[in-house]
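PT: before anyone asks, these are the final sequences, not the draft ones from last week. 959 residues across everything. Please model them as a single complex and drop the result in this thread when it's through.
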Amino acid sequence: MPGAIHQIKTIAKWEIKRFVGTMSGEILPIAIVLFVALIIASGFAQQSGIHLQDDMYTIGSDESITALITSGDNRFSVYKVQSGVSPEQGGFDLVLSRNAIYASPEDKGLAALTAFERDYSKYKISLYNREEDLFAAYPLWIEEEYIKSEIDFIATQSGQRAIAPPNPSVKPYPDTRPVTIPTPSSQIEVSREDLRTDLISGENTDSRVSRYAEVLASSDTTSKFKTPAQLSPPLPFDSIILIFVFIFPLYFTSQFFMMSIMNERIERSGETLLSTPVKSWVIILGKGLPYFLMMLVIAVILTVFIDASLMILLPVLPVILFFLSSALIIGMISRSFKELSFISIFFSTIATSYIFFPSIFANIHVVSLISPLTLIIYEIQGDGFTLFDYIYSTSLFFLTSAVIFYLAAKNFNEERLFNHHKLMPRMMEFIESVISKKWTKLSLFGISICTIPFVFMAQLMLLVLLFNFPMPYSIILLLFFAAFIEEFAKSIGIYTLISKRPDYLTWKNVVLGSVAIAAGFLFGEKLLLFATLAEISDSIFGAVLFASLQVLWLPLSLHFIGILTTASILKAGGRKFYLPALIISTVVHSLYNLYFILGWVG
Amino acid sequence: MNTKNSRIIAKKELKSLMNEKTIVLAILLQLFIAMFSSFLLVGLASMYNPDSISRYSNIQYPVAYTGEPSDVLTYLRDSNDFVVYEMDLSTAVAALKERKLSAVLWIPNVEPDADDPIKITLYTIQNDIQSSIVNVKLKEILVKYEDRLREIRSDRLTQTPVTIIIPATNPSSDFYEFVYGLLIPMLVFMPAIISGALIIDLITEEYQQNTLETLMSTPVRFTEMIWGKIAACFILVPIQAAGWLLLLMANGIAIKGFVPILLHVSAGSLFLILVGALTALKYRERTNAQFIFSIVIVVLMLFVLAIPMNTANILVRLSVGSIGQEHWLFLILMISAVAILSYITTHYAKRVRMKFV
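LR: through. Structure below.
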């Protein structure tokens, strides 16, 4: 072991030398110039605003007050018209005439009307905020108290209700003895001027950026007391911007690692190292270490820069590992630069949105905790997170990174690195390398377990995408695609065997292999659910995704029948029947889910 | 320069792109980003505007009213969204804990025309989406009450805002602004940025895979090869952009200036591709070239978006039809910029070629 550590250190040193060699000289001065330009550009953009939707709408007006209302909003171009002109006559989206606004009946007119209405209320707010008697302008204040419910979020996702329609004549009565709640004070413990400052600061927090946000939430307020207009749950947009500050530099740095691996293959510079008795995982760790440290340093600098607690490095860590491991495997499988670019952009977009999406629901829904970034938001807000939260939101990242590292280490050899096979065969070679000749069924069992984190990630992504569809369809599509992903994941091992070792797959082995895969899948699902997703699986979407968990033999038989269908069709028809085989097993899987979850059949 | 040679190179590159199926990934990526942003803006917006989804309108939420009587009680009773129970605070909060209620309101004993504000305490369930929806519904009631109180206290206000009668608006019209003001410029420019990155890969690959020498032994000249690659990357942009626009149109989203949009996108994308080509020729190595190019892109985008009448803004206005003939002038400006950059690229390629020999 000390020997390995020493080797890792040496390789890391070489890697740093190589990296500095390529980066310095011509690149450094221009990079500095560009960074300065970047700062100037963002300053300029902040000053001048983003002019994307300028003059989208036209408004005809017979009065000068229009300017008062739309002054900060360059979506409108204002024209002077005579009184009594209708929007259709003048060819305008809106016409303001004699203190009333008229919109053209088209979609555009209605959209312009909504925009105008928001501007109008902003205008009113800016007047009220400056009233001498603030409590005449804002006579009503709300203090929100959050109650933790023991029955946590059963079927409340996407507005579904767990309870029957309320009966107006019968008062609901709690089952347990109520605890006495102290009468809330009727006083606002914050001074009038503090409230005013807060209101005014919320007024124009960069109106152009927040215009995209205002669709979603009213102005963000830090105060405990809110006016009714501030009541909708504020989305943590500041924090989300901070997240981009973190994710992009980290992603960029991981790209250097990816290129280092790729260059090794192109220039065959790695060959000498591979011919030495140094173990492959030592080489990978050695090469990865400098980038890991670099990412860590960047994260520390950013944390200090935004003046946040260093605790946020904890949730950043699994993200770094995840980026590094994916950079490693992509660098190893791509044949050309084009492939490298596309696969890495594609993969990183999906990964970033997986990280980014749940964090939008921070403070709104427990589901947000599946992303480590929610923990960062909590930490920045000053709420902090518990050890359980940490395990809950980062375990998937640690697991997937570990699986990928293992796969890469197993394949980091001359034969894999320097051949020019196509993408799909290459991936299969990678998988084949982890299927043992002697313990084939055990390997299938293991592969099955290792696919689980990826399956969950993919299924959670589905959730995001299918939100776009109206309710009954989204559930049905989710059901179908979730089943498809599971069937696909289960079939990976069998498909590889069919193409690489067709002799092995006798009918007996088809059945036994299917048992191994089904068992592995079920075991993995159980394992991970215990660790992390127990809460999500309680919701309606969770019920669909992880339906097969109530009784043990039922899901086992389901997974078995699914994979057996695929395997048998592949065995009988050969590889060209892969897609039909997957679709048929997906249909079988979906029908099972429909039957048992939604009880639609019978 | 022999255009035939460039054509051969372009064809070869396009063919290899098709073979690798990487372009499929690129298109999937764009689709994914489009769906994701639509989820972000439209999906979330409808969640906060429950009225935009009709099936929510018949749901009634049970709320408890505690404390002193006020107009809020009347408003809640009149509303179709709520079933109100007058209860005592402790029982109500306990019922809320068991999810037998959606929210609990406590109203203090303060006169509507008092000097002090009225502070209502609102109890809701933590970390719960349903609470967010109930909040949005309660907000309507509370805003109504605020208006009423403001009216009572109006003699203490010094400034009266201009009254404008605004007809009822439709919250789903947010969708319009999202599609035209964000989605369309994003979808048509994404292929341009992808092509800019692609040209770097195509050029640096020749250097790093050592295929350049072989290529140079053929009658193809260096500049012809570069232009062939540029052409291959360029041709993909209008095709993809047109594809997206047609797809949107097939979904009932009317797009006004189809041809001018494509012309503007083509000019803009050629500009980006040329910047990419120049970067690649300068560094001849993918890591550095991509690194520099991505920063350049961000800087360029920030600058361009901060200028009024930028290409993206022109695209938005063309698609909704609120721009006159003046956009042709900007197209000509853009084309001249592209022409200058093409000239620089050709000359720079020649110089680099000389160095290479």
